[in-house]
Design a protein that fits this description.
Layout (H helix, E strand, L loop, with lengths): L7 E7 L8 E7 L7 E11 L1 H8 L9 E2 L3 E9 L13 E5 L7 E5 L3 E3 L6 H7 L1 H13 L7 E4 L5 H12 L3 E6 L2 H9 L4 E4 L5 H8 L5 E6 L6 H7 E9 L21 E3 L10 H16 L7 E6 L2 H12 L6 E5 L2
Parallel strand pairs: 9-10, 9-12, 10-11, 12-13, 13-14, 15-16
Antiparallel strand pairs: 1-2, 1-4, 3-5, 3-7, 3-16, 5-6, 6-8
Helix pairs in contact: 3-4, 6-7
The protein binds NADPH dihydro-nicotinamide-adenine-dinucleotide phosphate.
The site of NADPH dihydro-nicotinamide-adenine-dinucleotide phosphate has 30 residues, from helix 1, helix 3, helix 4 and helix 9.
Length: 334
């Protein structure tokens, strides 16, 4: 099965953390899968805001060279000995959430790769992965959204944001979203947001109070971080949950627990990996997501496609950090 696998491959890697210029085109060894690993020939990979933290140093990387890219879809070309005959075979199409996606091949633990249904193409698979799994675990586990809830989604037209709008609406909530442009506001509305606030022109806190008759919202899904954190406490309802899950504007500063007492607020700071850590968790969450896709409840908006090259990834990172994008950024690998 391994005769057609080359020994070298193209990859976009970093040798240190820093500005966009640390992204390099490099030739790397094709990894050898261990007994519990699967080797995937990558067709499509996905860009996430997280890549920019890993490149800049906000999230520390310990070992170099480091291959960026949190997710990849393609074909299984080798299965480790201990995992043979356990549901994933050479030739299967599969999606992995692991790391090392900006390369022609990636070796990943069996626990973090799952077979793709025929109906989900590789592009949509990539769009469903980090952003889809994150959105779904946020509305099911971090704060289980209930019918009739009012929820606030920051960056509602973003990759995670559009999916949060679709999912929260599907679960019966009224969705209020924030964004920086009219165009993006329209996009979020098409995806399930009932009210959109353009924070470049409007006062978000005032608008949320108008819309909710002064009650505030039961949950806030906040991937913006530093810039929105203090205002979140002015918009959350009594006993509400603030889920701060990202740092698009910078990391949230430390705070005193007493801050929560004013409204008995719960704060969660989840990370996807700890929701889909085991094979069972990964498979179960993906099964639910595939079901939502099959039913047409979850759909993906592809913002644009980029080359597997340092230049392509630089462009993608520039675009996602400059608030120009809405939806998923795809990297063409094959
Ligand atoms: P997005 O497509 O949402 O892009 C980020 C958006 O944030 C921008 O489009 C912009 O939307 C908004 N934004 C607000 N302030 C800033 C700023 N100062 N600089 C740049 N952007 C800003 O990215 P993703 O969908 O990939 O990720 C969204 C968030 O979710 C990120 O914070 C990411 O780290 C987090 N995340 C966390 C995970 C976890 O496990 N905890 C997993 C996946 C993602 P607008 O113009 O509408 O304001």
């Amino acid at each position: 099965t391994s005769t057609s696998i080359p020994s070298k491959m193209r990859a976009v890697q970093i040798m240190k953390q820093g500005g966009l210029d640390v992204l390099e085109d490099r030739e790397a060894e094709v990894p050898k899968p261990g007994p519990n690993d699967v080797l995937l020939k990558v067709n499509k990979a996905g860009v996430n805001f997280i890549d920019t933290y890993q490149r800049s140093g906000l999230y520390k990387i310990e070992k170099f060279p480091y291959t960026l890219g949190q997710e990849a879809a393609g074909k299984v070309v080798a299965v480790g000995d201990a995992q043979k005959g356990k549901g994933l075979e050479v030739g299967d199409r599969a999606i992995t959430y692991f790391g090392g996606g900006f390369a022609e091949y990636v070796s990943v633990p069996r626990a973090r790769i799952t077979k793709l249904p025929d109906a989900v193409n590789d592009t949509d698979a990539v769009a469903s992965c980090v952003q889809g799994l994150t959105a779904w675990t946020l509305v099911r586990e971090t704060y289980p959204v209930k019918k009739g809830d009012w929820v606030l989604v920051h960056a509602a037209a973003g990759g995670v944001g559009l999916l949060l709008c679709q999912m929260a609406k599907h679960l019966g909530a009224h969705v209020i979203g924030t964004t920086s442009s009219e165009e993006k506001a329209e996009e979020a509305k098409k995806n399930g947001a009932e009210h959109m606030i353009n924070y470049a022109k409007e006062n978000t806190v005032e608008r949320v109070h108008q819309i909710t008759n002064g009650n505030g919202v039961q949950a806030i899904f906040d991937g913006v971080g530093k810039d929105t954190w203090e205002d979140d406490f002015k918009m959350i309802a009594r006993k509400g949950t603030i889920a701060t899950f990202g740092n698009a504007s910078g990391a949230v500063e430390p705070f005193a627990p007493l801050k929560l007492a004013a409204k008995n607020v719960k704060v969660a700071r989840p990370t996807l990996v700890n929701y889909v850590y085991t094979q069972e968790e990964y498979e179960k969450t993906y099964a639910e997501l595939f079901d939502l896709i099959a039913k047409g409840i979850v759909k993906f908006k592809i913002h644009g496609e980029y080359d597997l090259s340092a230049q392509g990834i630089r462009q993608a990172q520039e675009d996602i950090t400059s608030r120009k994008t809405s939806g998923k950024l795809i990297v063409n690998v094959a």
